Amino acid sequence: MEIKYQLKPAAERRQEQFRPEGNVGFGRLRTDHMFLMDYYDGEWRDPRIVPYGPFSVAPGAVALHYGQSIFEGAKAFMHQDGEIYTFRINKNAERMNRSADILCIPYLPEEMQLQAINALIDADRLWFPMQDGACLYIRPFIFATEDRLSVSPSTSYTFCVVLSPSGAYYGANLSPISLLISTHYHRAAPGGTGASKASGNYAASLRAGRAAKEVGASQVLYLDNNNVYIEEAGAMNHFHILKDGTVVIPAFTDTILRSITSQSIIELAAELGYPVRQEMVRLDDFIKGIETGDIIEAGGFGTAAVVSPVGSYIFEDGRRLNVGDGKVGEHVKHIYEVYTAIQRGERKAPTGWLQPVPHLGH
Ligand code: PLP
Ligand code: COI
């Protein structure tokens, strides 16, 4: 794939490495450029890097009306050698195609996605935020552009990648969140789009998120449609930790997103020193486990937050259940430290997880 470069004039581009004052937060900032590529007449065409800015989109574009749109979320880190490394980005590219299949969006070869992401990071490498715990958050997405009001898959699409220099999600300390156990709102249904990163899944989660905020919870603990099994924690996979240190993650069904963080924790079990397993987790067993002290910690796994400890669960009748003493537990802290040290290149990563962004000289 030959990428065309329409870069901003040098004087309008960042000239030196970004050294933010204060935490830049998550997802707020952008870099100078974005990557674009269009699909029509059965092919992906015109790969290009252009100045970051608004699109021109037809008011009848299928994505705007019927939500035919998917995205990914990944991170890149700067290591001691001054190079920027993407983290397991091939897994995101693979999952993009899984989502594409679920949303009837055409396949986008993984090598093309990786080339696009690498080229954009390379062009905007001066935007890497030089700050403890900071990263470049990578947001690739595909949306349907055909101007047509009938409901069927679009015949044209745009693939775009934007970057967001982001700070440590938590600042210096992990802080426990609380989850509303929702039997009323559900995130996904069997046979639906729950295992994809369809934009509509997130639109559909907003009302449940609002209900959570209204009772003072940070996010929702989603259950399956029969309110028997635990599924996800907001935009994270859920997990809990048993007295003996075993980490338990709900089995991936078609109503749960296959979190790359969860998959990584499973692959890192030996390195972490904990058994990690996946199984269907019944809510009633989980609550009993917390009450008896058999479950000592819980939380969520996801790219943005890495590991988010849950301090308490809130029931719809207002009851509150603390996990342990409601504070951040030592296992969660250990997982967070090992995982982020691997990402930052301070601890050996499994082969292939971290890939340096090539210098292309633009
Ligand atoms: N579950 C949902 C619904 C998500 O949106 C995310 C975020 O990407 C995750 C889980 C965590 O997945 P990952 O670890 O791949 O970021
Ligand atoms: C991520 O963790 O990268 C996500 O995509 C979650 C999000 C919707 C911010």
TrEMBL record:
The pathway entry for this protein reads as:
Amino-acid biosynthesis; L-isoleucine biosynthesis; L-isoleucine from 2-oxobutanoate: step 4/4; Amino-acid biosynthesis; L-valine biosynthesis; L-valine from pyruvate: step 4/4; Amino-acid biosynthesis; L-leucine biosynthesis; L-leucine from 3-methyl-2-oxobutanoate: step 4/4
Q: Which reaction does it catalyse?
A: L-isoleucine + 2-oxoglutarate = (S)-3-methyl-2-oxopentanoate + L-glutamate; L-valine + 2-oxoglutarate = 3-methyl-2-oxobutanoate + L-glutamate; L-leucine + 2-oxoglutarate = 4-methyl-2-oxopentanoate + L-glutamate
- Listed name of the protein: Branched-chain-amino-acid aminotransferase
**UniProt keyword Amino-acid biosynthesis, yes or no:** yes
Alphabetic keyword roster: Amino-acid biosynthesis, Aminotransferase, Branched-chain amino acid biosynthesis, Pyridoxal phosphate, Transferase
Taxonomic lineage of this organism? Bacteria, Pseudomonadati, Pseudomonadota, Gammaproteobacteria, Alteromonadales
User: What family does the entry list?
Assistant: Belongs to the class-IV pyridoxal-phosphate-dependent aminotransferase family.
One family name in Pfam for this protein:
Aminotran_4
UniProt function note: Acts on leucine, isoleucine and valine.
Q: Which cofactor does it need?
A: pyridoxal 5'-phosphate
Q: Identify the NCBIfam families for this entry.
A: ilvE_II (TIGR01123), PRK13357.1 (NF009897)
Instruction: Give the UniProt record's GO annotations in the biological process aspect.
Output: isoleucine biosynthetic process; L-leucine biosynthetic process; L-valine biosynthetic process
Looking up Gene3D superfamilies in the UniProt record yields:
3.30.470.10, D-amino Acid Aminotransferase, subunit A, domain 2
Q: What class of enzyme is it?
A: transferase
Q: Which CDD domains match?
A: BCAT_beta_family
